[in-house]
Design goal:
Order of helices and strands: EEEEEEEEEEE
Helix content: under 10%
Mean pLDDT: 95
Structural class: mainly beta
Number of helices: 0
Low-confidence stretches: none
Length: 118
């Protein structure tokens, strides 16, 4: 099972990026998926989660109104659209998936760096 995140990069404050996370090895269409981030010297933070059918999404307060999580179960892929980026959004972003609907985050991607310059 592999989750591969890509789409990170360097962007100016106020800009946008779209992260993608492609899963392989099993289907994740029936379980929640999420995005996390970790900045240097800080703990990993749950940025956004999405239920298996996209009916429910949750966001960290720091990104509400700016980030949008979505998924395409046919492609086994989850996305994170990031708008109005701020320097404090700079971090390594990871995608994750659960093995079951309720439980821990069992699968992790390798991370993609997002750097926002002021």
């Amino acid at each position: 099972v592999q989750l591969q995140a890509f789409g990170g990069g360097l962007v100016q404050a106020g800009g946008s990026l779209r992260l993608s996370c492609a899963a392989s090895g099993r289907t994740f269409s029936g379980v929640p998926m999420g995005w996390f981030r970790q900045a240097p010297g800080k703990e990993r933070e749950n940025v956004a989660t999405i239920s298996w059918n996209s009916a429910t999404t949750t966001y960290a307060d720091s990104v509400k109104g700016r980030f949008t999580v979505s998924r395409d179960n046919a492609k086994n892929t989850v996305y994170l659209q990031m708008n109005s980026l701020k320097p404090e959004d700079t971090a390594v972003y990871y995608c994750s998936a659960r093995r079951r609907v309720l439980g821990s985050w069992d699968y992790w991607g390798q991370g993609t760096q997002v750097t926002v310059s002021s």
